[in-house]
Amino acid sequence: MNYKRPTKAIITDAGFASRYLPITKTIPKAMLPLGNRPIMQLVVEECVRAGITDIIIVATPEGKAIYEDYFHNPVEKIEKQLHSQGKDDRFAPVKDVLSMANITVIEQDQSLPYGNGSPIASARKFIDDDEAFLVAYSDDVVFGDSDMKTLIESYEAHPDAKAIIISQEMPREVLNKYGIIKLADEEKMTLKNIVEKPAIEDAPSNLTSYGRYLLTPEVFEHLDPKNTGLDGELWTVDAITKMAEEGNVYVEKTRGNWMTTGDPKNYMFALMRYTFDNEDFGDEIKEFVKNA
User: Fold this and answer.
1) Helix, strand or coil for residue 257?
2) First vs last Cα of the chain: how many Å apart?
3) How many helices (H) and strands (E) in the chain?
4) Quick one: 8-291 is in which CATH superfamily?
5) 1 touches 37 (CB < 8 A)
6) Phi, psi angles (nearest 5°) of residue 147
């Protein structure tokens, strides 16, 4: 069955982010800033650039209210104050946030097992049976081109796809830190499976998988509580591997630059990358770091 072109995306931020405590006891990890925007906004913008109109953010119970406020609260008091001061330009970015897309925020289903597949399963009712959809993990930021756009373009070229995943080539010395793609057909770039943190000498390729996927509703057959894997968790990669056994799962290489913000060190690297590329004081920060 061929499914409709995606117009919806699920973005997940439903974990505890224990490596960031104590700050994440109060705010979700994806609300940490890159410049004057939270990580979550950058992921939403990536979806919007690909033509996505409906976005479902899956959050913790504590995080839901924060995302609701950020994406839906018009803060009229602040707008009026800035207008009275002749500083309407400062409020313009807020208006942009409020009008980016149709954003729905939901809580992860607490009855589901722990695991990165559970937030996707929690959003099942928002996905029609005849449509493909996109998924992004908010841990992952992509600088430059939109991976979501790449996924949609790939689906237009491969309407038979059960799923499509994005990859990035990584240096050999770090292949033991990531999920590494094993291809079933190198010419067609179809997936066989993903090997999690292999020994460097056993890595089946230099292609790292991360949280950018195009999925079809068939994935929900595998994102079932009875299908838990390692550590009793529900894993998206396990579901995608099952789909690869049933049909074609295509692998695309990113046209951007993927960075993870999943831990404080890598978050800082991503923050510097954003600053160097986007802030008018980026060169000053480079000089400061060079001389620190």
Assistant:
1) strand
2) 58
3) 9, 13
4) Spore Coat Polysaccharide Biosynthesis Protein SpsA; Chain A (3.90.550.10)
5) no
6) -60, -35
User: H or E element: which one contains 6?
Assistant: none
Q: pTM of whole model > 0.90?
A: yes
Phi, psi at 264, each rounded to 5°: -60, -40
Confidence class for position 230, pLDDT limits 50, 70, 90:
low
In the prediction, which pLDDT does 16 show? 81
**Contacts of residue 140, Cβ cutoff 8 Å, sequence gap at least 6:** 43, 210, 211, 212, 258, 259, 260, 261
Question: How many Cβ atoms are within 10 Å of 21's Cβ, its own excluded?
Answer: 10
Every domain of the chain and the residues it spans: 8-291
Distances (CA, A) of 48 to 42, 89, 200: 10, 22, 37
Tokens found for residue 80: 């009026």
196 confidence band (pLDDT: 50, 70, 90) = confident
Estimate the share of the chain in helix, then strand, then coil, as percent rounded to the nearest 5: 45, 25, 30
**CB contact at 8 A, 64 and 107:** yes
Q: Which of 33, 105, 24, 7 is nearest to 64 (CA)?
A: 105
209, 165 Cβ separation under 8 angstroms = yes
What is the bridge-based pairing of β-strands 102-107 and 54-59?
A: parallel
